[in-house]
Specification:
Keywords: Cell outer membrane, Ion transport, Iron, Iron transport, Membrane, TonB box, Transmembrane, Transmembrane beta strand, Transport. This is SusC/RagA family TonB-linked outer membrane protein. By secondary structure, this protein is mostly beta strands. The strands form nine sheets. The protein has a 22-stranded antiparallel beta barrel. Strands 34, 35, 36, 37, 38 and 39 form a six-stranded antiparallel sheet that branches. Mean pLDDT is about 90; it is low at about 1-40 and about 120-145.
């Protein structure tokens, strides 16, 4: 049998991995056998250093490794200040830990830290070491630990205390709880300025924007760039959510400019959990989730519809009045039961650490025949050698997902609302009820069950890394990554599928493969000269993406529906049938970069950072492939000034300011700047039809990067002895050289549009984050976190001297609908934000109940003119976004309550507009709100500000109650059980399914009849640690 070409590379990689893994493991083991303590002496000097910083220095000086629990570091609770010359490791460790709550011991060159269980009892009465343990100072200790928390920055790590950039960190214990399959869902409402919206579709990725839209392109072009375990651009579907330790969101240009052309929308850095020496741990996490549709649109039932028709002297036809009372929203939906299982193993011995995990998720959709399942495996190894002067790492991750999708899902969702409730799903003979004489009128259950689409995706990532400590404070890092992704999709429409008739069965198949190869290599230099700390980084990056390697095919007229799309060659196309999808375009994209960063620190009080990145991409014009992205930032820790030592208000006070430039190369067609050719039809030649080929895109050798310049300033402070911490940020960013498609004359160019850099757009706003511990007693603790953000977005220009546009009606701005083709409801225009509504101006009804509108001159009319009589009517972007999280702990119980709110946003309820057709109520169902409308109101469905609704809401997003059992069984470290509820309550005046309509893209806030219903979920979970 002939082998399928789409699987060759995957099988090739799999065989290579199976060959290489044993060799790598053997190499690591060999190195590990030779690692030993050499008993050397060294001089050390620490000033207000966190234990993690101390450990890092001792690893370099003495070739040690450290094993500890994170909770012990908080128990130590103070900074380290000491100086020893020509001392052994034992002398240094004794100096650090004598009189502290921690004890230490050697196992080879491994230092094992444990808590002294008798320490607190012995020391409370004497008052010794009160800085770490005395209850009066415990909040200050927490504050210091937060300041010395290590934050992931581009190509490195840094303590939060020394940050000059805007970076928000969310730890695993702070993540959202829910039936999730994307890491962004863990952050919704947790990070000020990060807007995440999603529907209930398990196969749809959430829409993400950070600090407002900064491009006129949609999709990946508007979303942040991901870095996963220091691998830039790794696929988020490779992440095991239970394995994530922290997520850092890099917001301002000083934090993101080091990533250059991919960073204008911010950077999300995901760090997974790692193994620790001498701490073998096995963890098993599992949950079962039950989900139902949280809200339904109130459509008329059979009785209400008949009463409406009778009152208005109308009636159903005999074929439509079959005595049924069908709830079509209920018929197409289901109670979805999902499950998740996660098993992980981590640990290490001496200088070798490892972590491995396997995770399975089966996520059912609340619409029948939808859902997904995903299996992920992940192995990470890290080996230290040569007295910790060499560190080798390896990461292997693989994911296989299967998606069940609904073809023509938008048609199904609209017809579940408008199909008459007076007819049954099926007739007595078992056939589906249908009336194909009406326009766009199809039995939604029949559509659901007579077509299916399945998509299988396999993704594999291999990463190898090395770090070498060199003399004189130098360090060298290198990382090599290969990622392979295969997507196979099949769709089949049976011979009974009403939306496509006359095909006798129709099938589509596609298979694609994409690969990504990356090299990251950089040097770091660190030097301390008295009160001066200097850190300099310089590196090189290379990346090549190959996309579109595959095929697409279609066929029809099958002898049976039983085989579906599995044997596409079984079809017998008739007449002039042609493959509808045609050939696919193979694309190659290359990106190379040089980057550098310098940090200067004077007494941990005055902090300065500057970075510079130089990028080149093959996607842009030959005259503008290179671009430069600089940044500079400064921070002043005012709390350390002598003149503030005597004040008792602030326990921490810091000011930050930054400016930088980033680029946007995400979401680009690699051939965007080049002339392209495609089929333009057929011509008859030599007794047959021949495809005609012609230009379909003009080339632009001057096309260049979109650039975003951002100014950011912030005040970080803590009051009430560290019990309340807050950060207030202000930012102003402007994106120039926006890419758009401008109309041009075909006398000068091949085609009528030209891709050019012309426009500009701005975002400015503020973000506030407050963390507090209102109550902390012996058995009870309450911590609370509040964040809110405001963003003001404006399109500044769409034209220049060469290309001019007064306004743009973006794709998706016209919801469509019967007799409403071309009825746009949003506009892109200078001086207005993305998501600006521009539609008819409703003037109420006349005495006969007929809808009226204002024309452009302010006169009332019953026949408004498209475009001419449109008026501005608010925008979809919220004025304020808020997230409020509360954690309460009492002994072994824990309770988390999370509330989100959005204020000031508008939504065009195009769904209710298109359903408001009382004159056609004998043929299509209508909503309850139309009960008092007159059948004489023939055009009441026209899109207008009548249907622009207030989308403000207050949502009880999650409540989780858990209980942790004491360790009663040998070998079991911990057991926790919990119950969790998502989307438990919603307060809103919006009449649609949900006010939280997608805010990404160029047309946010349009509820367009195809919204996959949001769900209310209840979860029951178990966490076991061995």
């Amino acid at each position: 049998m002939k082998r399928k070409p789409e699987g060759l590379l995957y099988r090739h990689l799999t065989r290579r991995v199976s060959m290489v893994l044993p060799l790598v493991a053997a190499f690591f083991l060999t190195i590990n056998l030779y690692a030993q303590d050499n008993g050397k002496k060294a001089s050390v000097h620490f000033k207000r250093a966190h234990l993690r910083q101390v450990f890092a220095e001792l690893e370099k000086q003495f070739g040690l490794s450290f094993s500890y629990n994170e909770s012990n570091l908080a128990l130590y609770g103070k900074a380290v200040t000491m100086q020893l010359k020509n001392a052994t490791a034992s002398q240094v460790l004794n100096k650090i830990f004598t009189g502290s709550p921690l004890t230490w011991s050697f196992k080879g060159n491994l230092v094992i830290l444990t808590a002294d269980p008798n320490y607190q009892k012995k020391q409370l009465n004497s008052g010794a070491f009160t800085e770490g343990l005395n209850e009066n100072n415990s909040d200050s200790a927490v504050k210091r630990d937060d300041l010395n928390e290590v934050v992931v920055v581009g190509y490195g790590r840094q303590s939060r205390k020394l940050l000059t950039s805007a970076i928000s960190t969310v730890k695993s214990e702070e993540f959202n709880q829910g039936n999730f399959n994307n890491p962004a869902q863990l952050l919704q409402g947790k990070v000020a300025g990060l807007t995440i919206t999603r529907s209930g579709d398990p196969n749809a990725a959430p829409s993400i924007t950070l600090r407002g839209p900064s491009t006129l392109r949609s999709g990946a072009a508007q979303e942040p760039f991901y870095v996963i375990d220091e691998v830039p651009g790794a696929d988020v579907k490779l992440i095991v959510l239970d394995d994530i330790a922290t997520i850092d969101v890099l917001k301002d240009a000083s934090a993101t400019a080091i990533y250059g052309t991919r960073a204008s929308n911010g950077v999300i850095v995901v760090t997974t959990k790692k193994g620790r020496p001498a701490q073998t741990q096995v963890n098993y996490n599992s949950y079962v989730a039950v989900e139902k549709v949280s809200r339904r649109i109130k459509m008329m039932d059979a009785g209400q519809l008949k009463d409406f028709l009778s009152k208005n002297s109308l009636a159903l036809s005999p074929s439509d009045d079959q005595g049924a009372n069908t709830d079509w929203q209920k018929e197409v939906s289901q109670t979805a039961v999902s499950q998740s299982h996660h098993l992980s193993l981590s640990g290490g011995a001496n200088n070798l650490t490892y972590s491995a995990a396997v995770s399975y998720l089966d996520n059912k959709g609340v619409l029948r025949n939808t859902g997904m399942n995903r299996l992920i495996g992940r192995i990470s190894l890290e080996q230290k050698a040569l007295n910790n002067h060499l560190k080798l790492g390896m990461l292997v991750s693989s994911s296989t997902s299967n998606a069940d999708l609904l073809p023509d899902q938008n048609i199904i969702l609209f017809n579940m609302l408008r199909y008459l409730p007076t007819v049954p799903v099926k007739q007595a003979d078992g056939s589906y009820t249908e009336n194909l004489q009406r326009v766009q009128y199809y039995n939604p259950v029949s559509l659901q069950n007579n077509a299916w689409q399945k998509q299988k995706t396999k993704t594999t990532l291999l990463n190898g890394s090395a770090q070498v400590l060199l003399p004189f404070g130098f360090k060298y890092d290198m990382s090599v990554t290969a990622q392979n992704k295969q997507e196979n999709s099949g769709t089949y429409y049976t011979s009974q599928y009403a939306y496509i008739t006359g095909t006798n069965g129709k099938a589509y198949r596609s298979s694609y493969e994409s690969t990504k190869r990356m090299l990251e290599t950089f040097f770091t230099f660190a030097k301390k000269l008295g009160a001066h700390d200097i850190n300099v980084l310089g590196g090189y990056s290379w990346q090549e993406d190959l996309n579109g390697d595959g095929f697409q095919a279609s066929n029809q007229n099958f002898p049976t529906d039983a085989l579906g799309y599995t044997n596409i060659g079984l079809g017998s196309p008739t007449g002039n049938y042609r493959n509808e999808w045609g050939p696919n375009m193979y694309q190659k994209l290359r990106l190379i970069s040089f980057y550098s960063r310098a940090n200067y620190n004077f007494r941990d009080k005055y902090l300065l950072q500057a970075s510079l990145r130089r990028d080149a991409s093959s996607a842009f014009g030959v005259n503008n492939r290179w671009a430069t992205f600089p940044s500079v930032s400064f921070a002043w820790r005012a709390i350390d000034e002598a003149f503030l030592k005597t004040q008792h208000i602030f326990s921490d006070l810091k000011w930050r300011v930054s400016y930088g430039v980033t680029g946007n190369s995400l979401g680009f067609d690699p051939l965007i700047s080049k002339v392209q050719y495609s089929s333009t039809g057929q011509f008859y030649y030599n007794n047959s039809f021949v495809n005609a080929i012609g230009p379909s895109q003009n080339d632009n050798p001057n096309l260049k990067w979109e650039k975003t310049a951002m100014f950011n300033t912030s005040i970080d402070f803590a009051v009430l002895k560290g019990k309340v911490k807050a950060s207030v940020e202000y930012y102003n960013k402007k994106t120039s050289d926006l890419i758009w498609y401008y109309p041009v004359s075909t006398t000068q160019y091949f085609t009528s549009t030209y891709t050019a850099n012309v426009g500009s757009i701005s975002n400015q706003g503020f973000e506030v984050t407050i963390d507090a511990m209102p109550v902390k007693t012996g058995d009870f603790q309450w911590t609370s976190s509040l964040n809110f953000a405001h963003n003001n977005n404006r399109v500044l220009s769409l034209s220049n001297s060469n290309f001019k546009l007064d306004s743009i009606y973006p794709q998706g701005a016209s919801p469509g609908g019967q007799n409403q083709t071309g009825a746009y409801v949003q506009i892109l225009k200078s001086g207005f934000p993305v998501g600006q509504f521009f539609t008819f101006n409703y003037a109420g009804k006349d005495a006969n109940g007929v809808s009226q509108w204002y024309d452009k001159d302010g006169k009332i009319t019953t026949a408004p003119r498209t475009y001419i009589d449109n008026a501005y009517a608010g925008n979809a972007q919220p004025k304020l976004l808020l997230g409020w999280n509360n954690n309460l702990k009492y002994r072994k119980f824990d309770l988390n309550i999370f509330v989100r709110a959005s204020l000031g946003a508008k939504v065009m309820n195009a769904t209710l507009a298109d359903l408001n057709r009382p004159d056609a109520a004998s043929s299509y169902n209508i909503p309850e709100y139309a009960a008092n409308n007159s059948p004489r109101d023939l055009y009441g469905y026209f899109y207008s500000n009548r249907y622009i609704e207030n989308a403000s809401y207050l949502r009880l997003d999650n409540a989780t109650l858990g209980y942790t059992f004491p360790s009663l069984i040998k070998g079991i470290r911990s057991i926790r059980v919990y119950a969790s509820g998502n989307n438990l309550a919603l307060i809103t005046r919006y009449r649609g399914l949900d006010p939280e309509i997608m805010l990404g893209g160029l047309t946010p806030g349009i509820d367009n009849k195809d919204y996959y219903p949001r769900t209310r979920a209840f979860m029951f979970g178990l966490n076991v640690g061995f």
